[in-house]
TrEMBL record, chain A:
Pfam families tied to this protein: Peripla_BP_6
Membrane spanning residue stretches: none
Leucine-binding protein domain residues: 28-397
Organism the protein comes from: Futiania mangrovi
Protein name, entry field: ABC transporter substrate-binding protein
Source superkingdom: Bacteria
Range of residues in the leader sequence: 1-25
InterPro entries the record matches: Leu-bd (IPR028081), Peripla_BP_I (IPR028082)
Alphabetic keyword roster: Signal
Similarity comment: family membership: Belongs to the leucine-binding protein family.
CDD domains (UniProt xref): PBP1_ABC_ligand_binding-like (cd06334)
TrEMBL record, chain B:
Organism: Futiania mangrovi
Top-level division of the source organism's lineage: Bacteria
Membrane topology: Multi-pass membrane protein
Organism ancestry: Bacteria, Pseudomonadati, Pseudomonadota, Alphaproteobacteria, Futianiales
GO cellular component: plasma membrane
Keyword Cell membrane listed: yes
Name under which the protein is recorded: Branched-chain amino acid ABC transporter permease
Any Pfam family matching the protein: BPD_transp_2
Length: 439, 358
């Protein structure tokens, strides 16, 4: 093996053929930054499958959106921000339309892309994650975090806890622990919870867990020692299941342990087995397959072997959340096409669609997701979040199912709005942004 | 053939001590620089800038810095990510406290701040060596990231601990923030890397560099011939951290534009930069460039070939990419344990004799 043959071999390996796709009619490019690999893959796979399934269904059965086919592109980030930036730059000019909307599916990547995408005039749909203050559309015209952001989630959970304690007055002197992923994502709710704590008089314990979250012994020992009345969790990926298992091992009462919507999937509770019964999580979508659209996905795709994932995974809470995300994406583009009277939209027009997006209960019915799949969504210039309502779901290990135990709970806007304004204004000031006038 | 030195006589000491004593080398480097400075900017787009060239340049800067410490002075460090964080947070604080300050100056100041911190964490190296020192620098890595996570002042008390680089100019041209043109950011990083690579090259060829190498090769002997370990080791830590701090500034300011300490400056970055210099070549400035290119560009090349070229699914390509990258690292290290830079010099030796090897 001389140097020359090695060099030849290397050259041959590198010089693989490049194939170009045929030119087609106008397609709507919808990328998704996925993570089917890496430590967060268990959380990333169901979401990506739901996206893939919904767009396949739209393309094959309904001819796309308003007659334009969807060019669905996956780019793998492994939940890593640097790779997320590479993916974004890679997909943003794909196809004739260019990326119409970016779903980063990671709070860290969303933070990274907000300035860039706003400059490139591509809307970001960070559904229930990302930067909370992006709900202020006057400072963040291109960012949307419908149907609910983290601060809404935090207030919904606190309202639920107060309700369980028999009212706000009984919260005085209670201890609430926040177990959070030590990143921008996990820190999001801290300020909100602190503000409510001042108001209600409960003590807040902060317990950070470092990426990826395998190691939580110390955290739960502390919980065992201090015995907080409630534990609230902001976790993701493997961190969730470790936390539920640890909670079970110190015999912490599961019905006093509540996760945010990213800590409420089947993957998070199954490893703990029977002990996980009673664990609760916030959610803005109903679990299960009892919805016409999901039945349609099963018969049209999975029965014909076209499904993206395993049949069992359909109807899981993260799958349904991914589906909600895909539906919101498609509806935003549909609104944009109707507004502008042409399918030849680009990111800038797509943004208008998202800003005027309305999915009321009637529209949910039409989409095959009626009967309480998700709260109504209504976006406006000064509100890129919608209602912010969420419900609490509870896990039952016997039946292996999540069930909703509350109706949609409205967030505490009076607490959130001032914090949100302050944060958005600070961002605008730091980055020389003049806020739009939202009439 | 092309690579013959026949007839190139050195008639003075400066000529004999030139960085590129062979005319072909010199011509080639000048050509590369001309292409990089003149031919690339008109054609550069966002993708090439943000996904390929700027990451490559900022990692090169970090690799040069780490190479000074590990490759030239023999002090193993696993704190690169933490020191890059110091550079990045210094940049952020300077940018938000003094808006309007020239960004080039900010990068250099961030380098000085990091040099101070680096020298401080270099103090244990006077007493401990080898793996024990690696553990001490590992502590620096975790302590610094923890500090930036914990103390609100560093991230201006934002609710999430994220820092975002505001728009800043250098000589009147916007280089950071979303509105900066890709060419501006690229040229800014390129200028920095070229100037400081030259500085590093000359430092390592001079008195101080020889002291570092003496310490690396045998510290007791070095001490006996009059090298002061205190001065040599601490200067290596300071200079190395200066470079790494500037790398952190470019990484955060020009490339990412936003960062959170745990994710952007984690231990994985320390390892990545360490792998760069091991694969590129310890104790070689060229090696820093080659190693950074290998670790930054190869994954992207592999991905592009597999996804766009062969039409594989993104996730399959990712699995293959991890596999192939591992295989290639092993392959290159088996072919040449001393790294890519040594491989190149071996090839150069062979080329000199080609086509009549003896």
């Amino acid at each position: 093996m001389t140097i020359r043959t090695k060099a030849l071999g290397l050259a041959a390996a590198m010089a693989l053929p490049f194939v170009a796709g045929p030119a087609l009619s106008y397609e709507l490019t919808v990328p998704l930054l996925t993570y089917r690999t890496g430590p967060y893959a268990p959380s990333g796979i169901p979401v990506a499958n739901a996206f893939s399934d919904y767009f396949t269904l739209l393309n094959e059965k309904y001819g796309g959106i308003e007659g334009a086919k969807i060019n669905y592109v996956e780019c793998e980030t492994a939940y890593n921000t640097q790779q997320g930036v590479e993916c974004y730059e890679n997909v943003k000019n794909m196809g004739e339309s260019g990326a119409l909307v970016i779903n980063p599916f990671s709070t860290g990547i969303t933070y990274q892309l907000i300035p860039k995408a706003s400059e490139d005039k591509i809307p970001i749909l960070s559904m229930g994650y990302g930067r909370t203050s992006a709900a202020d559309g006057s400072v963040f015209p291109y960012v949307f975090n419908l149907p609910a952001h983290y601060w809404s989630g935090a207030t919904v959970i606190m309202k639920y806890i107060a309700d369980k304690e028999g009212g706000q007055a009984n919260m005085k002197g209670k201890k609430v622990a926040l177990v959070y992923h030590n990143s921008a994502y996990g820190k999001e709710p801290i300020r909100t919870l602190e503000t409510i704590a001042k108001d209600w008089g409960y003590d807040l314990m902060l317990l950070p867990v470092d990426h990826p979250g395998q190691e939580q012994k110390a955290t739960w020992l502390q919980i065992r020692r201090d015995r907080p009345d409630w534990v609230v969790m902001w976790g993701w990926g493997v961190m969730n299941q470790v936390a539920v298992k640890e909670a079970a091992s110190i015999r912490y009462p599961m019905d006093r342990f509540i996760g945010i919507w990213w800590s409420g999937s089947e993957n998070d509770v199954l490893p703990a087995g029977k002990d996980a019964t009673g664990y609760q999580a916030a959610t803005f979508n109903a679990p299960g397959t009892n919805f016409p659209l999901i039945q349609e996905i099963l018969t049209e795709l999975y029965d014909k072997g076209k499904g993206a994932g395993e049949r069992d995974g359909v109807g899981d809470s993260l799958y349904n959340r991914g589906l909600l995300n895909a539906v919101a994406t498609a509806e935003g583009l549909r609104t944009a096409i109707k507004m502008h009277g042409t399918v030849k939209i680009r990111g800038e027009q797509a943004r208008d669609g998202f800003e005027n997006l309305v999915i009321d209960n009637k529209r949910w019915e039409e989409l095959g997701l009626g009967g309480g799949f998700a709260p109504e969504i209504k976006i406006a210039c000064n509100n890129h979040e919608g209602s912010g309502a969420a419900a609490i779901q509870q896990w039952n290990a016997e039946t292996g199912e999540w069930t909703l135990v509350t109706d949609w709970i409205q967030p505490m806007s009076d607490v959130i709005q001032p914090l949100l304004k302050a944060d958005a204004e600070a961002y605008a000031k730091e980055n020389n942004i003049t806020p739009r006038d939202c009439k | 053939m092309l690579y013959r030195e026949t007839g190139q006589f050195k008639t003075s000491y400066p000529k004999d001590q030139a960085i590129f004593p062979i005319a072909q080398d010199k011509a080639f480097i000048l050509l590369v620089l001309a292409v990089a400075f003149l031919a690339v900017p008109p054609f550069i787009n966002d993708y090439y800038a943000k996904a390929i060239l700027i990451p490559f340049l900022s990692y090169t800067m970090a690799a040069i810095g780490l190479n000074i410490l590990v490759g030239y002075c023999g002090q193993i460090s696993l704190g690169t990510g933490g020191f890059m964080a110091v550079g990045a947070f210094a940049t952020y604080k300077l940018m938000t406290s003094f808006p309007g300050l020239d960004f080039a100056l900010i990068v250099i100041l961030a380098g000085f701040v990091t040099a101070g911190v680096g020298a401080l964490f270099g103090l244990p190296s006077l007493r401990i060596k080898g793996f024990y020192l690696a553990v001490a620098t590992l502590a620096a890595q975790f302590f610094l990231v923890w500090l930036f996570n914990k103390v609100g002042w560093f991230y201006n008390y934002s609710p999430t601990g994220q820092i975002t680089a505001p728009p800043a100019t250098s000589f009147g041209v916007l280089v950071t923030g979303p509105e900066a043109s890709p060419a501006a950011g690229y040229l800014f990083c390129l200028a920095f890397v070229c100037v400081f690579a030259l500085v590093a090259k000359n430092l390592t060829r001079g008195n101080i560099g020889r002291q570092w190498m003496a310490i690396r090769d045998m510290d007791i002997a070095a001490e006996l011939v009059g090298v002061q370990p205190l001065k040599a080791k601490l200067s290596a830590f300071a200079v190395s951290s200066f470079f790494i701090g500037m790398a952190g500034a470019l990484y955060f300011g020009v490339w990412l534009g936003a960062a959170e300490p745990t994710e952007a400056f984690g231990i994985n970055i320390s390892f990545l930069v360490l792998f760069m210099i091991i694969i590129g070549g310890l104790g070689s400035i060229l090696g820093s460039f080659l190693g950074a290119a290998f670790m930054v560009l190869l994954p992207i090349v592999l991905k592009t070939v597999m996804v766009d070229g062969m039409g594989l699914q993104a996730v399959t390509a990712k699995h293959f990419e991890i596999l192939l990258l591992g295989v290639l690292i092993i392959f290159f290290l088996i072919v040449e344990p001393h790294g890519l830079a040594r491989l190149w010099s071996t090839v150069k030796e062979k080329l000199r004799l080609w086509p009549f090897p003896y």
